[in-house]
Design goal:
Length: about 90
Amino acid sequence: MLVKEGKFDVIPINADGTFDTSKPDMEYGLVTDQYYYVSQDGRRTPIDTLCVYGKGNGSSEIGSIITRHTYLQITKTKCSEEFSVWGR
């Protein structure tokens, strides 16, 4: 079960940049998403939208199980409109 904060689901990203959830009706998109760096003591720092590149969504299927994926790229050093649109 995902933790909720207001109208948002909180999705912790693993050290390898992935997350796993069984929630079938995820809402996707930079318009609805908010990203934060989280320190070891739990303090959050918002990630500027110019530092986030949404590469797209996809899915895979094994038998009757469908897994949805969201591909993101985050940078701390190349934040710009070009990065947020093109990932470079």
